[in-house]
TrEMBL record, chains A, B:
CC cofactor note: Binds 1 zinc ion per subunit.
Protein's name in the database: Galactose-1-phosphate uridylyltransferase
InterPro entries: ADP-glucose_phosphorylase (IPR053177), GalP_UDPtransf1 (IPR001937), GalP_Utransf_C (IPR005850), GalP_Utransf_N (IPR005849), HIT-like (IPR011146), HIT-like_sf (IPR036265)
Gene Ontology biological-process entries: galactose metabolic process
UniProt xrefs under SUPFAM superfamilies: HIT-like (SSF54197)
Signal peptide region: none
Family: Belongs to the galactose-1-phosphate uridylyltransferase type 1 family.
UniProt-listed Enzyme Commission number(s): 2.7.7.12
Cofactors (names): Zn(2+)
NCBIfam families listed in its UniProt record: galT_1
Keywords: Carbohydrate metabolism, Galactose metabolism, Metal-binding, Nucleotidyltransferase, Transferase, Zinc
Organism, scientific name: Aerosakkonema funiforme FACHB-1375
Lineage: Bacteria, Bacillati, Cyanobacteriota, Cyanophyceae, Oscillatoriophycideae
Coiled coil regions, renumbered to chain: none
Length: 350, 350
């Protein structure tokens, strides 16, 4: 019989299709033979040497003696306008607002043919550093209520540009999806006197069934009621409400964790398309006892939108415990550069 | 500047991309030359003559002297099991439940090559009649909390079977998506003393800007804060909480309305893939003052899941007012059979 599980953080119920569940390796992406991706493309606006093809304003640039490593530029086709004020209007019961906000692109690397799963840990740390700096700058904007950092990898995940990049959006309202999570977290805190994310983490650590990877400061696991196959959450062990609070040491450790999880997906599921997003408390809420920032990674390995849209419920055709076991077992070669950093972070030889 | 609008019924904020908005006709589906669909396929389990290919139990069959017109059978690969009891379990803070429930398939017509947009009004009424009868039967099941009727048309909408069909799911819990709508509706009723759906309908009737089609008992319109292009809601004018309360006269009128709206999508947007769903109050809530059943039709004419998943906000690249105008203007030929029924329903010649 299928099993229904409730995702405590979103309150969604998901059907875990125990009987129809596929084997983990059946979710691997099927890729048709394609020409290899070149390391530079003349018409790619994000490639090294093509900086003139991006908007003139450079919001942030992280460089070393090799040139720039990570750049942030305004989105050329922004969903929200960075100019103007928040103006509310009502028409009868309807409410609208001027579409002000921030929409930036983080160009993750000068090379066209790379992806986070294959980057060195220091390169991933550079990206995370840039995320943190932009977060800290953007939150000073009084028009902003919430900042979400996200990445679309591959066409199924909604990107049209091949060059590795992520996006930062800052909205003049709190999206209802975030508001619902906050409300649930407050209710749990009121009832139980602790953070629902901390409690979830403690229970996962005890059960050990759904853990994908652990580092000193982070734990990556498949949620008990994962809404889709191989959905992974990365939680910081230290309770803090916003990504901007991350320390330098934690950034390096998160780079190690994120790269490891994405590499496990890359090698275990044949470079699947995926989205990830970094969720924090709304900018004005500051440090709270009830909300805990986290990263959600959603591989696009199954399609089932019809049932979900219709019924309001999710079906997951992978057992969270089996998916976690499968990812735990994926091994990959670590470069010497990364091995030295891992030794530094863990005190152990890899 | 883009405009943010709030969808009062879901509380989602949507970005109406006023500047980047496409012209309505740019959303038409692009279909490559394909062989015409045959009216019968030997290996199709839903075709007339192939009844032995569906599960043995026939839940409902509506026939006339031509043979069966609409059949209901159990889903061969049900997401929920129809046998067994609701058994709750907890593991620490986690909650789970046995996956009992109902998952049925409504075979809408004996012919393989047809779609609701092209069916006669009486044929559509047959389908709606069957929906109502199954709804009334299923709600007697004490394990059921919510019943959702939905349809996936085309691959983008999540179906793999070409033969026209829809699905009925009945769940042993109330999906959080429905619960959120209920909570909003209750809050509006407490604040304003009226049903949010009735109020929305009154405002749309007054504005007239987003109306797609009106019949005696139903109004089809594009929501003020439509989450995606050409999203259409059909609201009954009479306040009632559940689809099962629909009368025979209203069924014929809804058949006219649904067929007309789907035909406008079919001809105006080149037979786009779409989902629709019929949402009612949870089965135990009975007749309420705050909730109003409705149909949501979501054409799958744009892809933008990356931004939505990441930011929790929607982007709509079509102006609701323009989309409504476009659909209002789509004309199509009405058969004599339908013309007679329309005359009966409206008192006017068509």
């Amino acid at each position: 019989m299928p099993e229904l599980r409730q995702n405590l953080i979103t309150r969604d119920w998901v059907i875990i299709a125990t009987e129809r569940a596929k084997r983990p390796d059946q979710f691997a992406a099927i890729r048709t033979e394609a020409p290899p991706i070149p390391c530079y493309k003349e018409d790619c606006p994000f490639c090294f040497g093509n900086e003139h093809r991006t908007p003139e304003i450079e919001l942030l640039c992280l460089s070393d003696d090799r040139g720039w490593r990570v750049r942030v530029v305004p989105n050329k086709y922004p969903a929200l306008s960075c100019l103007g004020e928040r103006v509310r209007k009502t028409e009868g019961i309807y409410r609208s607002m001027s579409g002000v906000g921030i929409h930036e692109v983080v160009i993750e690397h000068p090379r066209h043919d790379i992806t986070i799963a294959l980057l060195s840990i220091p390169d991933v740390a550079n990206i995370l550093n840039v995320y943190r700096q932009r977060y800290r700058d953007i939150r000073k904007d009084p028009r902003i209520e919430a900042i979400v950092i996200f990445k679309n990898h591959g066409q199924e995940a909604g990107t049209s540009l091949e060059h590795p990049h992520s996006q930062i959006t800052a909205t003049p309202i709190v999206p209802s999806q975030i508001r619902i999570r906050i409300e649930e977290a407050i209710r749990f805190f009121d009832d139980m006197g602790e953070c629902i994310f901390c409690r979830t983490l403690a229970q996962e650590m005890e059960a050990q069934e759904r853990i994908v990877f652990e580092s000193k400061h982070f734990v990556a696991f498949i949620p008990y009621a994962a809404l889709s196959p191989f959905h992974v959450w990365i939680f910081p062990r230290r309770h803090t409400s916003s990504f901007e609070d991350i320390t330098d040491v934690e950034i390096l450790d998160l780079a190690y964790t994120l790269k490891t999880v994405l590499a496990k997906l890359y090698y275990g599921l044949n470079n699947p398309d995926y989205n990830y997003s970094i969720r924090s408390v709304p900018t004005r809420d500051g440090q709270t006892s009830y909300f805990h920032w986290y990263i959600a990674i959603i591989p696009r390995v199954s399609k089932s939108a019809g049932f979900e849209l219709g019924s309001g419920m999710y079906i997951n055709t992978a057992m969270p415990e089996d998916s976690a076991q499968y990812l735990r077992d994926v091994q990959f070669v670590v470069t010497n550069e990364d091995a030295n950093i891992i030794k530094l972070l863990t005190g152990k030889e890899k």
